[in-house]
Design a protein that fits this description.
single chain; Alpha-Beta Plaits; cytoplasm; DNA-binding; five-stranded mixed sheet; alpha/beta; phosphoprotein; five-stranded parallel sheet
Amino acid sequence: MYKLLLVDDEEDVREGVVREVDWDAIGFEVVETAENGREALEMVERLQPDLVVTDIQMPFMNGLQLAEAIRERFPTIKLIILTGHDEFEYAQKAIKLHIDEYVLKPFSAQEVIHALLKVKAQIQKEVAHREDVQLLKEHYRKSMPVLKENFLATLMNRKLPRDEVYEKAANYGIDLSGNGYVVAVLSIDGMLIHEDDLENRSELAKSVSLKYSEDQALKYFALLNITEEIAEKHGLGLVFMHNDEVVVLGARESRDRDTALQETMKMLEEVRQNVEKYLKFTLTVGIGTVMNDVTKLSYSYEDAVLALDYRLILGNNRIICIDDVEKRAVEKIRFDDVKEHALTRCIKVGTNLEIRETMDELFQGIEGGVSVKDYQIYLLEILTCILKAAKDSNLNVDEVFGDNFVPFTEINKFTSLEAAKHWLVDLCANMMNHIATDRQYTYKNLVEMAKDYTRSHYHEGDININKVCGHLHISAGYFSSIFKKETKMTFVNYLNHIRMEAAKELLRSTDMKALEIAEKVGYADANYFSFSFRKNVGISPKEYRNNNEKGL
């Protein structure tokens, strides 16, 4: 069932349309009716219907003004205009607003049903288009090369969950099976000059540099092709561009790390020699650490980039393996950006269960023979991340953890990993509780400030949610969700409530006319004030005053 809002200032028209149409039969539900555009717009914000059927000529805000406001803020809502033969000028403007259907007055129930069914068909067509599996498959097929390269780039930049790696690899036709993974980065020797670097240079220099930049791009394209050919010949490695350099990702079933590394080095040496012989330029290759876990490919990539830095010492036109220039007794444990982000997210918005699970993941594998030095550095990095999250959340560390809290000293007291992990979990849980309390206080404080501002400015005709948010320096979307959560009503309803209470007080305590009271409480239009008063209070301002004088 699609939700419909009916807007017309004539009660008999509204009642007639609702009565004469079999809404269930055509798949619509009239969720609300409104007497004018301004009232309807408030309902649209609250109900967000699929379709608005509106008259043009209405008081306070006509149908085209309503349509314009809806188009601006809720572009997916469909619109049907009810218009008379003598309203051609309005109809012309309606065309510019991309109104979906028109019904000419006077109209029959069948004409309304016909328009509704046409709009319903439009909605269903749009839904079908978005759900068209064949169309999606075609888009997916055409986007596959880009998606595949983005996935490989993601593997180089951050750690992904194992299940996600294998699932996406299967989707993109990438074979990542194996027990030895290594990444190599191939960099053409010499500096690549980009177009951005050409500022403040002579025209001749710019011309030469641009040509040089284009030549470098062609060289990398040639390097990519020759590397792909040789990798395919050996059945070894995925080849792709990343950060303007050629990257080779090797995934092999090998007896040991050395075998995987030697096979990769042999293939890359063939690439290096072919490039020098046939393409007439040289390149330097950085090879990272061999990993036995596919989720740690980003570490191998980082090491490959680091290995390239050593060409400043060792020279160009060679293969540099990180294990040759930085001897490592055991594989390093690393507190990378992904781990930092996961821990920070948990502390700020997670649950106690999530923080325990995250900490378990952080400590997984530490028992595998890491050096004491690396272990201590790793704990310090975790602790630094926790303290940084406390600072970002404006927490007073002394208040949260006590006056005698000396975090970097505490770490040295632990005699087991389990004890250190429990201590860190408790730290995080304590912080989470304080952050949640502070956030709730902030929410309440923001809402109270908004209420105070509204109570002080409700008499101004231009006060609205955007003006309040400007005063509070927050976004309207963020404020709307907080305000509704804390007060159980929308801001518009709250503003109307404040104005109505003020109006009732003035009606009780003064002899001011309705026009004067309307201006006093923020309504530029006295008629709309009377309309709103009756809508909210149930009687007119005059009746309210008379009842009050009679003690009713």
